[in-house]
Amino acid sequence: MERELETTDVNLYFDIKTEQELITHKRGVISADISVNLDSFDITPKEVIDDIISDLKLVNGTISFSKDTFEIDGVTKYGQKIYVFQTGDFDCYGGPIDPEMDVPIVKLDNNNIINDVEKKYKEFGLDINNLNQIDIGRTDIWGCLIFELPKTRELIMENKIRKSYKITGLVLGNLWGGGSGRYPARTLRGTDKEKIIKEAEEALTDGSLDSGMGFESIYGAILSLTTISKINIDEKEFINTSDETIILGEVSDDEIQKLENFNY
Question: Are residues 21 and 136 in the same domain?
Answer without folding.
Answer: yes
